[in-house]
Design brief:
By secondary structure, this protein is an alpha+beta fold. The chain is 43% helix and 16% strand. The chain is built from 12 helices and 11 strands.
Length: 315
C-alpha cells in the first residue's frame, strides 16, 4: 500500500487508517514522555535537597522520620494494595497523591492500584538504582503496570497529565517493569490547594524569610502578614504560618510559580564512596571553588562520611 504525503494523502486515507495512525502517534508521544532522563533524576534530587529532605541511610533512620512525622504510613485500602513493600511510608503529600490516584483508578478501571515500593533506605537500594534516587527521601512511589490495556492507558494518561502540571515526574522502568513516580510534595500541595480554594499551613525552616515563603507559596508578604497577625517580617524556625488561598490564576501557574521561586537554603551532604568534589558541586549546581570556601577546604581531597556544608540559592 502506498500512502501519499500531505493533505491530499490524508484525504485518501480511510477513517479507520487515520484512527490507527493517530493512536500510534499518541502512543509514541506517551512512550517518549515516560522514558525519563538524567535531567529528570537530577531535578527530583534537587527538589529534595532544596527542601532539606533527609535521605535515610538505614531502617532506624526511617523509624526516626516516622516518629518525627516527616514520613507517614501508607496503608492498603479497598482501592489500593501494597505488594512486598518493605517500608510502607512516604511524605504526607505523597500519601495523599497515592490515595487520590488509587480512588480515581478504581473508579475508572474497577481494580485496585498496586504499589510495589515507597521509601527505601540507601542501604536497601537495588544495585541498578541511581545515586540520586529520591526513594530514600520518601518522595517516590513505584506502581505496578496494569495488564489490562484500557487501565494501563488511563493510568499513563493521568500520570502524564499530572507531570504536565509539574507536580510529579513519571518514568516507565523496564528492569523490573513498573512506573517510577517521583512526587514534588510542596508543589503538589499547592496544586491541590489551588484546585480546592483552600488555605494552607507552612512550617518555617532554617534559611526561610517571609519574602521567600510568600514567593514559594504563591502569595504576597502583605497577605501572609494579615493572615498571621504579623507586625513585621520577622519569623522563626518551627513557626507555623497560615497561607491564604490563591486569589487568582490557574492552579498550574501557581505550581509553576511555586516550583521556580527563589530560595536560600543551607543543607549538609555526607560524602559517599566514589564521590568527588566536582561531582558534588555538579549535583547541587554550584562550583568546586564555592564548596571549598564554604567548607574551608585546602584541596579537593574528601573522605567517606565527611559532612559538607552547601548553601543553595534555588535560582
Amino acid at each position: 500500500m502506498t500512502i501519499t504525503s500531505g493533505a491530499d494523502g490524508m484525504r485518501n486515507l480511510t477513517p479507520t487508517l487515520i484512527a490507527i495512525l493517530l493512536i500510534a502517534a499518541v502512543t509514541t508521544a506517551q512512550a517518549q514522555d515516560l522514558r525519563g532522563s538524567r535531567e529528570s533524576i537530577t531535578q527530583q534530587h534537587q527538589h529534595a535537597v532544596t527542601y532539606g529532605y533527609t535521605f535515610v541511610q538505614t531502617s532506624s533512620q526511617v523509624a526516626g522520620l516516622v516518629d518525627a512525622g516527616e514520613l507517614v504510613r501508607v496503608s492498603a485500602s479497598r482501592t489500593m494494595t501494597l505488594h512486598n513493600v518493605s517500608y510502607p511510608y512516604a511524605r504526607p503529600a505523597v500519601r495523599t497523591l497515592i490515595e487520590r490516584l488509587s480512588a480515581q483508578y478504581f473508579n475508572a478501571c474497577g481494580e485496585k492500584l498496586t504499589v510495589t515500593s515507597l521509601t527505601r533506605p540507601i542501604a536497601r537500594q537495588p544495585a541498578n538504582a541511581s545515586d540520586d534516587s529520591v526513594h530514600p527521601a520518601g518522595m517516590a512511589v513505584d506502581l505496578r503496570i496494569p495488564s489490562n490495556g484500557r487501565c494501563r492507558a488511563w493510568l499513563e494518561s493521568t500520570l502524564l497529565s499530572l507531570e504536565t502540571n509539574h507536580v510529579l515526574d513519571v518514568t516507565r522502568e523496564r528492569r523490573p517493569p513498573h512506573y517510577h513516580v517521583a512526587v514534588f510534595p510542596e508543589t503538589y500541595s499547592n496544586y491541590l490547594a489551588g484546585m480546592n480554594g483552600q488555605s494552607r499551613e507552612y512550617t518555617v525552616r532554617s534559611g526561610d524569610t517571609l519574602t521567600a515563603v510568600a514567593a514559594r507559596m504563591n502569595t504576597t508578604v502583605a497577605r501572609l502578614r494579615a493572615a498571621n497577625g504579623l507586625r513585621s517580617d520577622l519569623i522563626h524556625i518551627g513557626q507555623r504560618l497560615s497561607v491564604p488561598a490563591d486569589s487568582g490564576g490557574s492552579s498550574a501557574s501557581a505550581v509553576a510559580s511555586a516550583s521556580s521561586a527563589p530560595m536560600v537554603r543551607e543543607v549538609t551532604h555526607k560524602v559517599r564512596q566514589g564521590e568527588t568534589l566536582w561531582r558534588i558541586a555538579s549535583r547541587y549546581e554550584t562550583s568546586v571553588d564555592v564548596l571549598r570556601r564554604q567548607n574551608d577546604l585546602a584541596g579537593d581531597l574528601l573522605r567517606i562520611g565527611q559532612t559538607l556544608r552547601v548553601v543553595l540559592d534555588g535560582s
